[in-house]
Amino acid sequence: MSTCHYFNTPQGCRRNPCRFLHESPGNAGHDRGPAKTAPTRKSAPIQLNLDAPKGVCRYYYNFGNCKKDPCTFRHLEPGDARVIQQIGFRGVTALNNGTGAPNPGMELMPAGFQIVSPSDALQHLSTFCAPRALFTKPFQIMKFVNLLTNAGLKDGTWDEKDAQTFLEIVTETQGLSRIEAILTFDPVVVQVGPRRDAISFASAYIPCLAYFVSGFVLDSTLATRVNSLYGLLHSHFAHISTTITTCMGDIVARKSFEDEPFTVSCGAQIFGILVQVLVEYISRYKSAFRDQQTLLPLAESLSSWINLWKAGGFIDTDIDDLHARRVTRDRLDRDLERLLSMATRESKAFTRKSGIHNQNGSRGPHSASLIGPLAIHYDPAGNLRPDGPRHDNDIEDIRVTSIPPTEAEMTCKVSPFLPANIPGAPHHLAAESMERLLDIQFRLLREELIAPLRLTLQMIISDLRSASKKTLLHSLIARKGGRYIAETSNSDSVMASVYTSANPVSITTDRRGMAVEILIDTPPGQARSRSATQRAEYWKAISRKRLIQGGLIGIVWATQTSIQLFFGLISSGVEDLQSSSRQSADSLRLRIKFFDETINPKVMEWCQLRSQDRRGITILMVEASVMYESIRPFLKALQREPTSFPFSRYLVHRSHNSRHHYQSVEPPRYTSTRRDFTWNLRCIVNEGVSLILDPRDPNSIQDARQSLRSSSRLDPSQADAMVDCLTRDFCLIQGPPGTGKSYTGVEIMRVLVANNVGKILLIAFTNHALDHLLESVLKMGITSKIARLGSRSSNEELKQYSLDTLERLDSSSTEDKSNIHRAYRALKTTEKELHAVLKQLQGGEVSEDDRTEYMELFVADQYDELMHPPQFVHAIRALEEGWSQVGPGKANGQTPLHDFWRMGRDIIWVEQMHSSTQVREERQLSNRFVDLAVDEGEDDEASSFEDDLSDFGDSPSDLEDEEGSELRSFLEAAGLSALPPIPSSDRPLDQLREDETVWAMSLSERTRLANAWEEGARQYFFTRNQNSFTYLKAKYEDAKQTYEECQDQTKLRILNKVDIIGCTTTGAAKLTALLSGTRPSVLLVEEAGQVLEAHILGSLVPSVEHVIMIGDPLQLRPTINNYSLSMDHSLGGKIYKFDQSTMERLANAGMGMSMLSVQRRMRPEIASVARTTLYPTLEDNELVTKYPAVRGLARNIFFFHHTHAEGGADEESVSKYNAFEITMIKALVHHLLRQGTYTKSGSIVVLCMYLGQLAKLRDELRKSRINVILDARDEEELRNREGDATSSDEDSPIQVVDVKVTDQASRSSNVTAEYSSIVGIITHRGQLSSLLVTGEEADIVILSLVRNHGPDRPGTIGFLKSPNRVNVALTRAKHGLFVFGNGDLLSSKSDMWTKVIDYFKELDSYGTALPIACHMHQESIQWVNNADKLRQVSPDGEKPPKILMFIVFTFHL
Hints:
Elements: H1 58-63, H2 81-87, H3 118-128, H4 138-151, H5 160-170, H6 173-183, E1 188-189, E2 199-200, H7 201-212, H8 215-218, H9 223-235, H10 237-254, H11 267-284, H12 288-291, H13 295-310, H14 322-351, H15 368-376, H16 407-411, H17 434-465, H18 472-479, E3 482-487, E4 493-499, E5 503-510, E6 513-521, H19 532-541, E7 552-558, E8 563-570, H20 574-583, E9 587-594, H21 599-608, E10 618-623, H22 632-638, H23 648-651, H24 670-673, E11 679-680, E12 692-693, H25 698-711, H26 716-727, E13 730-734, H27 741-754, E14 760-764, H28 767-779, E15 786-788, H29 796-799, H30 803-809, H31 814-841, H32 848-858, H33 860-867, H34 871-880, H35 897-902, H36 905-935, H37 941-950, H38 956-973, H39 989-994, H40 1003-1055, E16 1060-1064, H41 1065-1070, H42 1072-1078, E17 1082-1086, H43 1093-1099, E18 1106-1111, H44 1132-1135, H45 1142-1149, E19 1154-1155, E20 1158-1159, H46 1164-1173, E21 1179-1180, E22 1197-1201, H47 1219-1234, E23 1244-1248, H48 1251-1262, E24 1269-1270, H49 1272-1282, E25 1318-1323, E26 1338-1344, H50 1363-1370, E27 1373-1381, H51 1383-1389, H52 1391-1402, E28 1406-1407, ...
Parallel strand pairs: 1-2, 13-18, 13-19, 14-16, 14-17, 15-16, 17-18, 20-21, 22-27, 22-28, 23-26, 26-27
Antiparallel strand pairs: 3-4, 4-10, 5-6, 6-9, 7-8, 7-10, 8-9, 11-12, 24-25, 25-31, 29-30
Helix pairs in contact: 3-4, 3-5, 4-7, 6-9, 7-11, 10-13, 11-13, 11-14, 13-14, 19-20, 22-43, 25-26, 27-28, 31-40, 32-33, 32-40, 36-38, 40-42, 46-52, 47-48, 47-53, 51-52
């Protein structure tokens, strides 16, 4: 075979394929066969401009040939052994800045590696990625790989901006083609030797893969671009797998990593890169194992190779530094464990048969009795179910389950698969596995989200199909909306808001993307007030309860024959609602972002319908009771690859026999990856004291405990908690009421920041708790490098540290801003194009051009006839041209020919002419009779009349002759001998479509045919524009994602500069990708006892190496809305336990928990209530022993026992109230205020167990001199429940005041008990003054328990059985605690209440009358058992101040 003459020219061979041999100089005789070459190009390739080593010909180094003969420089290529010897092998380890840990994936410096500055690298990359640049030779690949290696190094040379630019260029079309060429190159060999047609596996192929797992790539927020890289792996995995298998098989067979002439490679680094690439690929492609048949064998082979390598005997270059070597191998072991876990999971999924194979662990002692019944009723998910999937979203793998509900799912009457949340319960996934835990939490959380809406929709559909008109739905339709409340069982109910007359009016765009604008009836009640201002105020106050932005809604689209469901999110904000409510009292305008795109054409068709065509169609909007956007981020996070969650060894469900896992808690991993790490505790010990803690030395740990107890500002229990925290990678700290949980958390952060352990991710359940901690960090001078995510901070100082503010103040990168502006312009351009198409799709008249195009295509014969009318029509148009006015739709003053035809202007003219001719003939006949009469001499008047007319011009007969003459002339010019007949036929449309003689049609026929043409044109362009809409919608969504990614990249760069990132649990889940890019080392959770386990799991980004949970599982539990899943439910508390926090579950399972034991809140008598029940080791700080006695009463704590019956609705209704307690509390509040001591804000708090009690107490206090201000959440809840009631405009609305409110406690469920506080301030004139609320505690707490069956009646205590709620209620008071309730009933129903009441009795503080006493005459006690007597005996106390304040604050339990 001949040699190709073009192969060794600078332009290279342009044939593809080439039938000649591609021989390099000096390699003649080596038959390689036809080679793949670059495709033919019309222009010469761009020359590369890479620096050659000293003494080497630059041209030859770039192109493999030289035109100079002779050349004074050496002709060497990058792969030449002499080049390697000259440059030197750089087998060093690149370390992350400040951590001492190897940079994942980029430890290997390939042979021939040259350091290239970022600017040069970007220039060379642009040259490589130019469209006309050749990329066919191995030495070019080596140069490109060198750029990839430089761009992946986190050695301080490259920053995020340079790395982002590099990533953007390399993921463009040409850049991806270069990487694709490397990944698919053939041959790839272990030892290149003198070959110039092959690339090295270790020095080219592996470094290319290493870029995929470099820190800059994995941390990037440019998800679309990163996914495009891994898309290459997915597309060419078979070839890549073959290459890896072949080369690694060769290495293992030879037991050598020799790469002649490049020296010996490092096996640990090669294996590390391969394992991590596979792990990342599988994490991104959930179907990877199903799509790639070679993936599972490759993973198994890789594990086998690593085991052989670990056994020794390989020729290998190991890392010289022992610490770095150990860290690298540890990282390899962890990644391999992840890979094998993935492979094992998928292998089991492949082999799992259709039968049920439960992976049950050992049964715990508390759940053993449940396992048998659960196994009997076990009905698994998806295809594992004997009867098949319940619906289209019933899938066994949660990673591919749709988070938004589907229509089939929401109409399915079969109960969903809800796995039991206990060890050993039946489940299709392996016991004690992370995937099982994630599956349980995902399904329970999703049930929390969609269950109320699902049940409500099923009932609504049943009502729509019912023949009866007396259903709940029909009554709501008659009222134009309202609450749909239905009982689902004896103790459970569902409630949703139904909005009637939903009318989709248009499709538009907003910041959330595509949205549909809908008009709905304004719900009844205050929302329909005649006052626009009051309507707007109502929606502002209720904005977190109804029509919430991000809330889930369902559209019920019912016709006479079918019912369809569509689901979406409310995109309108509260400002939009207020604006719409001001414009109309009867309707509201909303924007809805739908999940299912099939609604778009349905809306477009709806907009085209006339009102008469919409009859018989009912469209309702149903709003879910749970906010979708507060749950979706966690569901999305739970769908992550299970092996990406750290600390699975602690978090998974353990059987009773596996509790030893909790006893082997180790120090945080970063203490071992950093060389000679020790804790320097100088920042928390007394001045002049030095203290070092080695987390792996038991003696050092014990010394640190003693030193902190004696020489720090921490109390002994806090000191122990500090040491435990620093020596355990997963630490639980329990803080009973008043023991300084937040203070301990702040001091822990002080130590972490001082020791530079990496970023701290601080999450809290509420914004208030988060603000409190961050404010303390700033005030205590721990660090000012903080960033607060989210915009709901009420602290003005912290607002300066919000991420949005930091972005606005950042001026370090104009390139980032340029990228954002460029992406924004692209977004707006696409949005403009989309709006233009939408305008055409959503109704309106068909344009003349569109109609013409349609007619030319589909009714060409009729269109041709229309455009070539008979000659007389042309004559008529010419005759009328002077009569027509120039205006819209008229060319040159003439009516368009189509419009002329449709209006029948020719027919009208002919009709006029026929009429005129008939009149003229009648006149001529009349004149003949006149002439006859004159001839007979009957009268001379007619002749005299004509003579008179002649004086003014032509006579009538002359005019008629002239008109007739003009008509005859016109007809002759038009080729007619007489006027054409007037068409009067009235044929159907199908006959008209077949008739080409359109000008012979009657006026009615023309109208019928023209309408058909217009409708046809409308449908044609509707379909065509729909295709444009689909394309532009996808383009718009891509542009929106690009814009958001550019914004996130700027945020990432800012967050990488801070020490502490603070956010709520919801914020952490929403920003998982962003937070993952910052690689936080520590996760600190405040209020951990109130955080759902799903929230904790969703916040665990892969980089976290240290988890610290601070809270109290004996106080408030997490908030849920689905009572049937809660711990308080008779069944849910045994099986689902969904509101059991991670902290509570792990503590119950045996994990150790540090206890803070010194309280600084309650006087000893009150603290003893807690000691008697839940905290036997609780100690009192000296401070609380010095509290003054309560003024106006003879006891500091007292339980007022009574048997006055409760009122309200059903057993568990939140509308319950107790009228007797209301009157007593009102009188007691007045009595306490008269003492003059409790007038400061926060001095008095009334806690109500039920919302109905709160509402009535509010109304009762309004009747007195006390004005009432409600906590914002109570205000919303009351408005939410009272809003549907009809109110007159004269009724004064509940006053809303901006208050500083703590969210220390959270709301339970929509049917659970709630503690509520009312805030009110009075002056001596009864006028509202100022407000300041502490919320977490108060001097005096009055507790209204409400529940009371009355005398001689059976009763229950409902939610008062919960020890957690009782604990919180009894531990808020500092000086005085006064409880109203039925002590006998409580004691009979609850062991905890028995202990509490017995304690009150021991103190002689239990009775049926209050001990009222003057503070100056304590020996004189008056026992008061009713409100009237209390008002009579209440002493005045000291003279009250001019302004009296009374505060009743909400505690939500």
